[in-house]
Write a structure and sequence with these properties.
By secondary structure, the protein is α+β, with helices and mostly antiparallel strands. The protein has four helices and 18 strands. The chain has two domains: 127 residues, Diaminopimelate Epimerase, Chain A, domain 1 (Roll), CATH 3.10.310; 151 residues, Diaminopimelate Epimerase, Chain A, domain 1, CATH 3.10.310.10. Strand 2, helix 1 and strand 3 form a beta-alpha-beta unit. Helix 2 packs across helix 4. The chain is globular and about 55 Å long. The mean pLDDT is 94.
């Protein structure tokens, strides 16, 4: 039996930049019969940071399963943006949401970008990490249970250029996380502040490592945006706060990521929106 697929580059309008994503179409008759093992084997064969299985069942929201090359994950940013962009550009502009294992994700087109409301359950863990690249206690922040990132602020682009591996190499061993949060992956997002852009938004250059380096990581960017918003001065109110993140430059795969965060009061995140675009690269079919 054959399944159709496409690939995209996400968080870019330039082909062969951004972060590659495979989307495999699962017809309605296979919705309940395509096994986890089969999906994992396909994702491993693609060997991309993520592969999406998009179920072609009637109604909304559109069901998507997200796999890395080694495991299923509840949510990831670039598969969400890529899936939303593909649906709204090529399938049905009226679709309003995706359904992931992390929850329902509203989607929309806004000013040429796909804008997605990110499910979030922000948790800052007790453990911190040190790095030779800075003199700070770098926190671990989960955007949802199963997606956690060490956030390491660096003083310059020169320091960012030296950030070539995760601060925690055992990516899929979450034992360092707090009790009841020991699930999923732990990556490291390095970020270097780049001042204020022409529109008055805080800008950053970033790199993310989780075993390998990733050219664009929406979940880590969302975690960083939430963490930054929690630490904005009280006199700024509840936002929204917009952060402009540029990732993947060192890999030759520049990616542009936008995160908007609104607080719900001190220590509370009300909403996280992730925005970006994508470009179609190839399409074909695979055998199962």
């Amino acid at each position: 039996m054959k399944l159709n697929f496409i690939t995209l580059d996400v968080f870019t309008k330039t082909r062969y930049a951004g972060n590659p994503l495979a989307i495999v179409h699962v017809p309605a008759e296979l919705h309940n019969t395509l096994t986890q093992a089969q999906k994992q084997s396909i994702a491993t064969e693609f060997n991309l940071s993520e592969t999406v299985f998009m179920h072609q069942v009637s109604g909304e929201p559109v069901i998507v399963d997200i796999f890395t090359s080694v495991a299923e994950i509840p949510f990831a940013g670039h598969p969400t943006i890529g899936s939303a962009w593909y649906i709204l550009q090529y399938r049905q502009k009226s679709v309003q949401a995706l359904q992931t294992k992390a929850g329902r994700i509203p989607i929309a087109l806004s000013n040429g970008l796909v804008r997605t409301a990110i499910p979030h359950n922000i948790h800052i863990h007790a453990r911190t990490f040190t790095s030779s690249l800075n003199d700070e206690a770098n926190p671990i922040v989960s955007i949802v249970k199963g997606m956690s990132f060490i956030l390491a602020r660096l003083p310059s682009l020169e320091a960012l250029a030296k950030a070539k591996s995760s601060l925690y190499e055992d990516t899929y061993n979450p034992d360092i996380l707090d009790k009841d949060w020991k699930e999923g992956l732990v990556g490291t997002l390095f970020y270097a502040p780049q001042g204020i852009d022409a529109y008055g938004h805080r800008a950053f250059r970033t790199r993310m490592h989780a075993g390998l380096e990733d050219p664009a990581t929406g979940s880590a960017s969302s975690a960083l945006g939430a963490y930054l918003a929690l630490n904005e001065p009280a006199e700024k109110g509840n936002g929204p706060f917009r952060y402009i993140l540029t990732q993947g430059v060192e890999m030759g795969k520049k990616s542009d990521i936008v995160v908007d965060v609104t607080r719900g009061g001190p220590g509370v995140i009300d909403s996280v929106f992730l925005s970006g675009t994508a470009v179609k690269i190839m399409e074909g079919s695979l055998e199962i």
